[in-house]
Amino acid sequence: MTENVLVRLQQALPGLRPSERRVAEDLLADPTTAAGLTIVELATRNGVSPTTVMRLAQSVGLDGYTRLRLELARAAAGEADRRVAFGVSEGDIDPADGIAEVVRKLAFQEARAVEDTAALLDLAEVEQVVGRIVDAPVVDVYGQASSGLAAQDLQQKLRRIGLLANAWTDAHLALTSAAVLPPGAVAIAFSHSGETEEALSSLRTAAAVGAFTVAVTNFPESPLAQLADAVLTTASRETRYRFGAMSSRMAQLMIVDVIFIGVAQRRPDRVSATLAATFTAVEGRRRPTRSGGAG
Question: The pTM is what?
Answer without folding.
Answer: 0.81
